[in-house]
Amino acid sequence: MNKETILVVDDEEDILELVRYNLSREGYGVLGAASSEEAHGILAAENIDLLILDLMLPGMDGLELTRRLKGEPAHEDLPIIMLSARGEEADIVAGLELGADDYITKPFSPRVLIARVRSVLRRRRHPTEDTGDVLQIHDLVIHPGRRSVTMSGAPLDLTFTEFQVLAFLARRPGWVFTRTQIVDAVRGDDYPVTDRSVDVQIVGLRRKLGAAGRYIETVRGVGYRFKEKAVSAQAR
What we know:
- By secondary structure, this protein is of the alpha/beta class.
- The chain has 2 domains: 5-125, Rossmann fold (3-Layer(aba) Sandwich), CATH 3.40.50.2300; 133-235, Winged helix-like DNA-binding domain superfamily/Winged helix DNA-binding domain (Arc Repressor Mutant, subunit A, Orthogonal Bundle), CATH 1.10.10.
- The chain is 39% helix and 22% strand.
- The protein has 8 helices and 13 strands.
- It has helices spanning 13-25, 36-45, 62-70, 89-97, 110-125, 160-170, 179-187, 195-209, and strands at residues 5-9, 29-33, 50-53, 80-84, 102-105, 133-137, 140-143, 148-151, 154-155, 177-178, 216-219, 223-226, 232-235.
- The protein has a 5-stranded parallel sheet, sandwiched between helices. A 5-stranded antiparallel sheet has the order 9-8-7-6-13, covered by helices on one side.
- A hairpin with a 2-residue loop joins strand 6 and strand 7.
- Helix 1 crosses helix 5 and helix 4 packs across helix 8 (195-209).
- The chain starts with a strand and ends with a strand.
């Protein structure tokens, strides 16, 4: 039986109970909240392993709660699956850019939800990235183990997804990756996002990297790559 505890936040009681029922059947501990404010209080008091979050909530919406949690050291690494009736590309991109780990649109299949929950928790238990090397690109230093990036010694504030994309490209300098390959690498197979969401992450990365943004090259008609001669590795 699973030991993880999941907090489900939705102001629709029938949806809350449907998700609670299916997760409980799989052996997860499940807590529920009807608002962001209530959820934030539970997170402060309980050890939560995963947050399933509706976006359209009374008071503070789900995007704002995500933004707040990602800015709190105690919750910045909390996995979040957004579950929402808002399925436009702009909504999905906004959620992922804030650091959500997955985005599922309503109506949804409980079996698909369970599969996504398992996938997110599995990645949390067994991170795939190599944490043994620090990547250094001139004045840019990427530390996978600490999940930190510095430029000329100053820390850069990257979202979870921005960091994943940057580390993935930097580990394989000179290799060209399609947008689909990038999505599969940082999110897992069959992740339901569009090419546009990858472009958004790259634009955000280049902006935050400043002059170092030139190391991420666009290969027209294919995808992106990191400049081959820019990267060196050093022992942690």
